[in-house]
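User: Predict the full complex structure for these chains.
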Amino acid sequence: MPKSKVVAPPLHAKQSLWLFASALLVLAPLVPHLPQWLSALTALTLLWRGILLWRHLPLPSRWLLAFTGIAGASGIALHFHNLFGRDPGVALLVLLFALKLLEMHTLRDGFAVVLLGFFLSLTQFFYAQSILNAALTMAGVTLTTAALILLNHWRHPPVRTVRLAGLMLVQAIPFMLLLFVLFPRVQGPLWGLPIDAFSGLTGLSDSMSPGSLSQLSQSEAIAFRAKFSGAYENKAPPQTTLYWRGPVLSQFDGRTWRMGRVFVSNRLPYQSSGEAIDYVVTLEPHYKPWLFALEFPVTIPPDGVIATDYQILSKTQVRARMRYEMRSYPAIVAGVDESPAILREAMQLPPFSNPRARALAARWREEFGADDGAIMRNMVDFYRRQFFLYTLSPPLLGEHSVDEFLFDSRRGFCEHFSAGFVFMMRAAGIPARVVTGYQGGEVNPVDGTLIVRQSDAHAWAEVWLRGRGWVRVDPTAVIAPSRIEFNMAQALPAGEARPLMALPGFVWLMQMRYRWDALANVWNQWVLGYNPQRQRDLLASLGMRSPDWQQMTVVLTLICGALLLGFTAWALYQRQRTVPALAAWNRLSKLLARHGLARKPWEGPSDYAGRIAASLPGERRAVAVEAARIASIYARLRYGATNAPDAVRLLKEMGAGIARIQRLEGQVPAVAART
Amino acid sequence: MSLAATLQERFFRWALRGRAPEASPITLTQRRVYVLPTRQGLTYAVSLLVMLVGAINYNLSLGYALVFLLTGLGITAILHTFRNLVQLRIAPGRCEPVFAGELASFGIVLTNQRDEVRPAIRLRLPGQTSIEVEIAEQSSLEARLTMPAVQRGWLPLPRVTLETNYPLGLIRAWSYAAPEQRCLVYPAPAETAPPVPAMPGEDGGAARIVAGMEDFAGLRRHQPADPPRHVAWKAAARQDGGPLLTKLFTGAAAHTLWFDWDMLPASLDVETRLSMLTRWICDAHDAGLAWGLSLPGSELAPAGDDSHFHACLKRLALYAQE
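Assistant: Here is the predicted structure of the two-chain assembly.
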């Protein structure tokens, strides 16, 4: 069959307007994540487009757009020093999208804008996947779908368009849920990700220098959640036991503490003893391998190992929200038989740094002789006696940071206290190291989970004593006991700037936040945290015997097929609505059927009336006259002017006529019955 | 016929559930409405695939959700597009006769029994451009499809393609229907024809006519000496570039015209003769004359009204065809 070449038809102004509106909604959530100059450029482009739309002006020339495009792309390359990462990719896509809006001539261009809009809706999830983001995306997708409908049928009235788009998306939701639950999940990434894939995430790092933790403590982001079971169901163990062990830092270069060399194994390096605490941790992705657990953990998750410094590590970076069950024994004695190599590392100090601290440590060593425990207690006393101040904004420290902190400024945060402590121990020849992690957390009264935020980041000291192994010493607990017993907000002196939520007098805000957070937790657990493992567990609990991808595909296909059948039935269903006049007309036919005078399908009113008159002679003439009257009324109602003013009266007359025929028929026995 | 053409023909026959034409009214049942993605639909699917790979790679749970929602939207589009066409009823409408060489216009009555409007339904005849209609809820409308009428005789309505890609343009639903309908095609009036035989008698012999001014008697080729008000302008306008004709008037004793097959030279072939007869009939009708038509084996008694005009043309159209 010859097919004529179809030239893409031009866009109508109404279509452009809708595409423009959907573009605004799609771009809005991305703005905070773009370079500021690009946001400004995009805003300008959109403003320009808006003015052109408003004034019905022609679109700019392609040369101008090409120039803007090249300039923008160069700007992105300069800004990111790269064009092939995640962020430059998103930036380029935004630039392309904005320029495409200005180069939107034909329907095909419009369709490209719609597809780009869907892509950009996806990219905003790189930065946030909250409930709010989901709602915003839903609005964006609805508007974009409406724009797509108008793209094909620009005469479609706006309200009907949005309603249709909404209806279609509502009908799409069952398919989305099915696919979401049953589509065989693959744990990404499929290939190496660009380095910047996880930029902008805060969390504990593998090093600590003055200021790094206090910066982290300003962040209200959630590090992980823990749900306790057994004795601590719906609450948490005492705050003073909530030491969530993270990276252990045993190397010091005079300013920065770093992780030492560690070896990993699948076997526990200690014996469990004392009271057990069972809990499940839901860890936010932090793109580092460490998994947090209360001291000291005895469970090694399936994909995890335990290091010689008692740190639980994942074999890969934690790139997705991760859920693991854990058991800890706070009373464990660890490291009584510590290897000499580790102890040597735990005594290493850079030469010539912090002379004053070294001198003090040497004096204490002389004073207490071989009693390491006494030196340790003396250091704790030193902190207690010397009026140290716990503050989020300590002064900057110079080259001999420990000296300056211990003897001059005496103002610091947990990293200063722990670093000073460990330095003094090492200077006195006692093995010691800095342990970073989180301390405490708050129980959400709504769902009973313990929420640990980045602001709970903490650093403490671990000292090795002969016969007692590694002993935890938390100098911060000495200087600001309420930091450990309650939280940071309690420990900070009045007047110190603190995170908004930590301000007193925001009880109702706290309540709201608890509720919201409980919801967010459910969202995280079931929507965002729905990974291959979760999927297998869920499907197994729903009764699927071996939830592998084949079975999932079969079940998915079956249910989708059933759903499709249901929808097809809906598509085929149509209410049989009979016009009242037709109903009365059919009644007449039924009434006369016993004389063999049922109306033939092709008979019009006058033909039918004529046939009745011809076959009802003599005494039954009255019926024929009545039928003729009804036929003429029916013809007027059905084929006359629509909405005749006397339609109701005519309809009543028809009914009365049929009633009269019924009466007449009642008096005279039917012809058919007689013969 | 090539293999492809044969297969296509067989497909159409299968798609129509038997040989065309079909009995009316035709309802497009679900079994004869076909659904396939359009080019845009395929692009959409590829885009979703790319988005899915992105969502997997970056472990974006909401990315999965978005891709699945859009997949659901695509599936819903199939249903909506299908629904827009299915259960549409088709019946033949009016079809006026045309002359060969003109456009035959077929009326197709589309009935929507649903309580919802059916927008953007396109109808197309093979090789012709399509027309788009919107059928309001619980109503019917007559769409007019045109195609060139080439040959005289009955022109059957070819297979009609009904299609829609409402609402998203991602999916195309289509169906074929061949309602029983035919258009009568009259022979094309000859561009040049001998002058209307002006004075044939009822007996076919010589006429005894006193040329007068009262009654119109016929036409003959214009001669410079004829008065301008006797020129048959109407006939001239009908036939651009043709010869001017002069109306002849007679007294009260006017004779009826007879257009006889045998009056035309025997050397002419059938089609040429038919088209010349057509020309004569048209001219006589335009001039408001009465005429009779005599064909081998049949004859139509003289008259001058419209129904006679059409009856004659029909006779010519179907000459040697039935």
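The mean pLDDT of chain B is 81.
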